[in-house]
Amino acid sequence: MFRFSPNPNKANLVNWREWGQEAFDAAQQQDKLVMLYIGAFWCGFCQGMDETTLSNNETITLLNAYFIPIRVENAQRPDIDARYNQDGWPSIAFLTPWGDHLATVNYMPPDEFCNVLAHLHQTYQDQQEEFRAAALNQQTPQSATAQPPTRLRASAVSEIVNTLMDIADPVNGGYGPDHKFLHPEAHDLLLYRHETTSESEFLDHVTLTLDKMRNSATYDSEVGGYFRYSSKADWSEPHREKLLADHAGILMNFLRSFILTENDDHRQRAEEVVDFLTSTISDSSGAPFFGCQDYLRAAPTLGVDSQGRTTRTPGGIISIIDDWIYTDANAQVASAFLEASWVFGRPKLKQRALAVLEFLWTNCRTADNGMFHYHDGEPQISGLLNDQTLMGSALLDAYRFTGNQRYMDQAEKLGKLVLSNNSNPDGGYYDISERGPGHLRFPLTLLVDNGRAASFFLSLCDATGNPEYRRAALWALRAFTDDFAPYGVYASDYALALARYMSSPLTIKLEARPGDSDSRRLVRAVRIRLGQYRLTLCVRDSESSAAVYLGDGPERVGPIFHAEEIISELAASLQDTPA
Q1: Is the backbone peptide bond immediately before 90 cis, with ω within 30 degrees of 0?
Q2: CA–CA gap between residue 278 and residue 281 (Å, rounded)
Q3: For a tag on the chain, would you pick the N or C end, based on fewer CB atoms within 10 A?
Q4: 265-280 burial, b for 16+ CB within 10 Å, e for fewer?
Q5: In degrees, to the nearest 5, what angle opens at C-alpha 67 toward C-alphas 64 and 70?
Q6: CB 409 within 8 A of CB 383
Q7: What is the secondary structure of 350-398 as a DSSP string?
Q8: Phi and psi angles of residue 393, each rounded to the nearest 5 degrees, phi first
Q9: Can you tell me the distance from the alpha carbon of 60 to that of 53, in angstroms, rounded to the nearest whole number?
């Protein structure tokens, strides 16, 4: 299903095709170049392209006559986006009939774009043999792909953290001197670093950033939520799209900051995120969440004044919702809602999280290839690595908060599918489980994906006690051992997984009334004083005084009722799940 700008346009008159072998077969049979258009639902330039260039009669004629036009969205097909996107959206890639890359442009006005179309068509007609030869020699894209497995470097965690702190903005918060993205994954890493070292600079930077974001135009003070990024360093010039996955991460950031600082402002801000998610990008069904909210300016209204002259009234700002259900982002929200349920004492958040997981498991899964990526009325695109590992991690979180064995069994099914379908024999895990046309014949082993996979397998090892999953985590981590500085913020998930891998596991069981302030003090003490361990927090509701137990076996220590009693010596002799 193709989606176009909600403003008037004629982009639907282009003979768009879905990505697939049929489109490339047609290109080969008709000996035409492929024009691959990668847009984003929330992208203003994409909407503008629909309304202008792709509504231009000459553009439509050229595309339909001389090209095979394929249209996808970045969120719909992250696998295609990873291979063909250049310099943002829209990315308009021109491909040989076999899917190999020739050129890419971004937004262009009609005349300029038509010149490009005419030039590429004529050049292809004149130089077909050269094009085909170049296509045969084209190799897999080398974007963040794995290296041959080697030994882990424990120093890599510090190197990645130091890179983050080197680009941390001490005045405005965030990372980098210019435009600012939300980057909740970087905050996760710095909060973990604070917990394991007790060094305040990491916590201070996260709280500075969260406060600066909340007190700026990047926070939507009218309906709530955080815009995806700001063009200015002080968060004052946001681009007005709000993504579901970002809000899952920001919610976790505020929850962890609140636990570590007892800053009630951060509790309130976490509650704001929950309210935005439940009121704005979900519906009354109360199960999954929608992909994003965007704002755009409606088309101007034309009229006639008293002298018979045409008038043009600018359109107002309208809100649009991407109402497709994305597995990876919904799984992240489920994990965040489970955490929020005990922090806030709001059991309905746990119920909502479990309902989301039930929807995904029932409606977005195939037995042989795991989770589908999105649901638009029907499940679409299975086998993407991120969907399996983020859903698996959320299921393990559900197991931690309910004790229901079913969730661990479901997570283990996904883990086994990843091992079977996504393993790269040279190290790490492929982003796709099945190859396809074009550059989908080149599976990628990506740093961010493998960091998440390693974290999932470590959690699965700790939950099941099966050392096979620790080896699976190592397989992901060993695929990347070179200089991480070029990745910048995007190495955060990997660093967090590596740090957890280097730690010994320790299960913490919390028994408390939901929302009990004593329970937060106990958890804060655990995270600060036992931060050297790979902690698994299991939460059980209790009407008794808040208490924690260290360990999960017959020699567990507890109950412990007072934070000052939690010291590392208590945990040192425990034998927990295999390290």
Answers
A1: yes
A2: 7
A3: N
A4: ebbebbbbbbebbeeb
A5: 90
A6: no
A7: HHHHHHHHHHHHHHSEETTTEEEEEESSSEEEE--HHHHHHHHHHHHHH
A8: -65, -40
A9: 9
| Cα–Cα distance for residue pair 499/477, rounded to 1 Å | 11
| Omega cis (within 30) before 559 | yes
Phi, psi of 449 (to 5 degrees): -60, -40
The β-bridge relationship of strands 325-326 and 317-322 is unpaired
| DSSP string for 144-156 | S---------THH
What span, in angstroms and rounded, lies between the C-alpha atoms of 493 and 188? 8
CA pair distance 514, 535, nearest whole angstrom? 20
Alpha-carbon distance 442 to 434, whole Å? 10
**Helix intervals (H) in 465-557:** 467-477, 492-501, 517-529
Run of H or E including 79: helix 78-84
How far is it between the farthest Cα atoms of the chain? 91
The reported pTM is 0.94
In this structure, the strands spanning 33-39 and 67-73 are: parallel
| 112: exposed, middle or buried (Cβ count in 10 Å: 0-12, 13-18, 19+) | exposed
Phi, psi for 479 (deg, rounded to 5): -75, -10
DSSP-derived pairing of the beta strands 504-512 and 370-375: unpaired
Residues 82, 455: Cα–Cα separation, whole Å: 22
Sheet holding 292-297, edge to edge: 241-243, 292-297, 317-322
CA distance 497 to 491: 10
C-alpha–C-alpha distance, residues 321 and 547, integer Å: 43
- pLDDT tens sequence across 461-507: 999 999 999 999 999 999 998 889 899 999 999 999 999 999 989 89
Place of tokens 């990506």: 446
pLDDT bracket for residue 2 (50, 70, 90):
very high
How many whole angstroms separate alpha carbon 420 and alpha carbon 413? 11
Show the 3-state SS of 302-324. Answer: EEECCCCCEEEECCCEEEEEECC
The pLDDT of residue 143 is 45
CA atoms 139, 143, 146, 147: torsion sign = positive
315 Cβ contact list (under 8 Å, min separation 6): 7, 297, 298, 299, 300, 301
Residues near 171 by beta carbon (within 8 Å), at least 6 away in sequence? none
H or E element in which residue 63 lies: helix 57-66
Average confidence (pLDDT) over 201-210: 98
> What kind of fold does domain 11-137 have according to CATH?
Glutaredoxin (3.40.30)
Using alpha carbons, select from 4, 3, 73 the residue that is nearest to residue 299. Answer: 4
- Position 115 pLDDT exceeds 90: yes
Neighbouring C-beta atoms of residue 529, cutoff 10 Å: 18
Q: Which residues contact 522 (CB under 8 A, 6 or more apart)?
A: 510, 512, 546, 547, 548, 560, 563, 566
Domain range annotation of the chain: 11-137, 150-168+422-502, 506-572
Q: Report DSSP letters for 248-266, one per residue.
A: HHHHHHHHHHHHHH--HHH
Residue 578's pLDDT is 43
Single-letter code of the amino acid located at 253: N
What residues does 512 pair with on adjacent strands? 541
Given this model, what pLDDT does residue 563 score?
Answer: 87
Beta-bridge partners for 320: 294
User: Using alpha carbons only, how large is the chain's radius of gyration in Å?
Assistant: 25
